[in-house]
Structure formats: structure tokens, C-alpha cells
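Hi there,

I know you've been waiting on this one. I reran it after we fixed the sequence typo, so this is the corrected version. Both the input and the resulting structure follow.
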Amino acid sequence: MTTTTFKELGPGDIVSSRTLLHESVPLTGTIMSGTYTDSAGTEYNVKTFAHGMFQSMYDYPYLSSSANHVVDLTVGYSSQAGSLTLSSSTNVQNSKKCNIYNQMAQVLVGHDITGGIRRFDQDGLLESGVKIDNAFFVNFTRLLSKDEIKKGSFQMTVYTGSVVNAPTGGLTLYDASVDRYLVNSPAGEYTLLHTSSDGGANSDDVPVGLLYYQAGIAVLTSSIFTFEESQGESAKYFGDVLSSSWSVSGSFTGSSIDNACDGFRNRLKNIQFNNTTELNSTIYFCRVHHNEFNYSSNPTYLSASTIRVKNVAGDIPISYITTVGLYSADNELMATAKLSEPLRKDSNNEFTLRVRLDY
């Protein structure tokens, strides 16, 4: 229906709402490593770069138009770290690893009062907590994480032993709901990743990483990868435990970023979480009273000065509502809403048409 009469919407006719939509995201280790590999070991869904600073994973061979970019993976360590990974010019890709750590720390942790870059902290106590100085960074693309990762839904299972013993070394990391959600990050809310689903409430496990919900990034300490050379003995770093078939050798400091990422991907069993899409809506209740909009200004409404929809001159006027138009204050059309079928309108009935704008 078109009309030359505009009806103003009052405060009681406009309502804003916020809806959170969730999708389940399963990401198997076979996608990350093995599904699209040929006999020569070429992985067609893993894209490496000449700069060697990170790898990009796709859910299909990345040269295909059907491929979706799902994860970026990289590693880094702090130049302020202890004796194990103390920054040294003799380390493989030392400056790049330090730069990656600093870049991620600036975005996710921020700066202290002196302007220095804060280090990732094991328990969120930025000034006094135990630091995560050697880290894997798992960056989920916006395609997967959407607006944020749903709190309490994240699980990641990795193998921590050698290649031969990997199936017996599964370790699952949780963003346990017992944790408070920390907000002292410039990237938004984050929490601690534990090795038990109760977040250490009934066990003595310590946090092994951080999960940044809005950024869609997991930061994992490299010490979760252990190789038990004998009962009770383990090397608490990502090092010479890796298979030569991955072309990985040396310790966390002695391996290239690509080789360390290869090792991580081949130890990944499963990642699952729910993403979140925030849908903001404005709802307009367009109320049509019995004495309103019973005529149409459409030129075809009349024929020889006679209303087409009337057969008897004494009949009440009738119109059919097909469209609702939302106008600005100066009567410029801003949006239209089409009805699924015309609604007959006369002086004997009233309607409330609900128009919803999502953004």
C-alpha cells in the first residue's frame, strides 16, 4: 500500500534486541595434516610462505576455489625468556620468533606503564604471574570464530609423545567454565586453558595456555609437548622428540617455524568449539488503527473516480496492505518490508505489523 499520509513511530513502537547465534565447529587433525597429502608428503591444504613466519591451513587444497582458510599457525618466544629459550643469534630464525612473540603480545597482552611489551602470563596476573615465554599461536579465521568463541565450549586434544607413541599420549585442553573470564587484555575477554574439564577445581593441574574469545586466538605453552624417554623423565620443550619424517630436528630454538608448525599439526588430534554471531535487531511495531490507511493513493485504486474494490457506493472503503515503508524525519524512504500476502484493511479491523531490521 502506498499513502501520502505518514504515521510517526513513538518510543513505545521501537524496540532494540540482541541475539547470539552459535555454530558447532569441529576441526579434526586429519584436516590439519594428512587428508590432502600425496605419496611424496606434499600437503596441498597447508600453505607455507617464503618469509617462513607462519603457515595457513585450509579445509581443502588451497589452490581450489572451494577452499576455505581456517587456521594460521606460528610459534615464537620472548627475548626475556629464561635459560631454555634465551634469545640468541645462534637460534634458528631467532629474530623472527622474537618478533612474532612481541607482535602477538602487543595485540593480546598490551604494554606496561613503562611502554614495554608485557609477556603472556600463565594465570592472568600480568605483573607477577608465571610467564609463557615459548608459545604456539593458533589463530582461527573469522570464518570459524565469527564474532567470538563461545565461552566454555573450547576443547583441543593433542598428542604429546613421540610419533610411535602418539596415540597413547593424548592431552585435552579445556577453557573450563570454573575460571573467571579475564578482561585485562586490549583484545577483549580471555581465559585460561587447563588439562582438566573442571579447570583445576579438583586437581592440581596448572594452566597450559590462554584462549582469547573475541580475537579467536589460542596461545599454548610449548611445554605441553613432552617426550618420556623413560618412566618419569621428560623433556619439557618441543625438540628432538620429533620424527625425522617431518624434517624436524633440534629443540624449540633449533627448529624453523615451519618445522615446529609441522610438528604441532602432526600432533593435533581434534579441536572443537562453538562460535558466536551477534545479531543486533531493531523492531518497529507499525500499528494500523481502524480509521487509518483504509484508502490507497495508488492511481489504479480509482477508475473514473470510483473505487475499484467497491461494488456498491454505500460500501465501506477497502484497501490492501502489501508493503510497509520506513521513512526518515524528512520523509525519505529508508527501508521497505514486503508482506507475504496482501492484508485486507477496512474500518472494521486493525493490525500491528512487526518489522525487524537485522544488522
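Quick highlight: The chain has four helices and 21 strands.

Best,
R. S.
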